[in-house]
Structure formats: structure tokens, C-alpha cells
Amino acid sequence: MPSLAQLFANNRAWVDRVLDDDPQFFERLTHQQAPQYLWIGCSDSRVPANQIIGLPPGDVFVHRNVANVVAYSDLNCLSVLHFAVAILKVKHVLLVGHYGCGGIAAAIDGARLGISDNWLQHVRDTLERHRASVDALSDREARLYRLCELHVAEQVVHLARTTVVQDAWAGGQELTIHGCVYGIEDGLLRTLDIDLGGGSDVAAVATRAFAAIASRDGRAIIPDASERAP
Q1: Which domain holds residue 13?
Q2: In a domain, 229, yes or no
Q3: Which pTM was predicted?
């Protein structure tokens, strides 16, 4: 494991590489922050937002917590959402779950982890709402994939129903929420085709999304070839 001194050395080396490519990079960052995207994802160290979508610092606003939960009582998440939507005027909010999530596994396995169990009750709530769909699959891995996707869909609905998003849409602000899943095993980002804008019928879109997830065989989504880089 790298020492703290090594981390500082890594930082210096990174700065030198950035400045070699673009001497004005940090000067520009000092004077501007105008991201078009808010990423709400999991705290898992294997899921770095900027790297996954290939955007440099300054182009994506990020909030992360265990199991990418959007809770109406979470002032941290809501404050980030408000700052991104009302102040920075982002146009897209990406709610991103990931296959291989420990929080999803804990819910499926009924594991007790300690104080984090209180937070992961949000995931267990998703499991209880969709128990029949998840239990219809006999394979544990398939159940993990399905719960991961269902949990993303549920959190997209939560986002759409926050006062922050509702106020933005009521004011005519251009804002779309997207549900996505990241595959640690292959590095690919998948869309769940859950896209909610100001004119969306949230309940109808959610119903279609849950039905689409339940209709799959429980394996990871295979991204369309057109979504891959040439």
C-alpha cells in the first residue's frame, strides 16, 4: 500500500503531467466551474466518476455515498443536488449504480455489517418492494444484477420527486435525470433507458422501467455496440 508520502509524490507527478499538456489548466479551473453533469453514485473506490465518462476536473459535479442512495432526509445529498441544479444549472443528473456493489450484496444475503445497516435499509426497502421479481431468479448473481438495476430505478424516481427537481421543472429549467449501471468487470457504463425530464410522467416511466428490468434474465446488461467507442 502506498505511503502518504507516495501519495503526495503522485500528486506532484500528476500536476507536472497536466501542466506539460496544458500550462493554463489550473488557472482556468480557478476561475470557472460550469459542469453540465451531476453524477450521483456509489462510494466504491472502483467507480471513479470522471475517469469512467472521460471528463476532466471541472466538467462533472459529483456526489457519492454507499449504494448510491437518494434519501429525502439526506441533507448532504439534497444540498449537492440543489447546488448542482439551482446554482450551477447542470442539465443532466446521472444516477449510477454498479454491478458488484457490496451494499446490494448485503441486502440480498441478509448480512449484518454494523451501523451502516441503518443506511443500507434503503436498499433493503427496494428489495422488499420488488421481492417477487428478485426471488423469481434462482441464481444469486442474477439476483444481485436485478436488485442493482431495480435500486437504480427506485433512486431515479426519488430524485424526480425531490423539491429541488420539481421546482426546477416547474420553472422550465432544462434538466434530465438518467438511470445508469456501471460494470466493474468490463469498465462499461450501461443505460437503463430511464430518462426523466420536465414533461415526464414519473409513475408511468417507473412502471415501464421496472417491467423492463423484470423481463430480463438477470444477467448484466450488454451495451449496444453503438455505445462503444470506435
Answers
A1: 1-32
A2: no
A3: 0.91
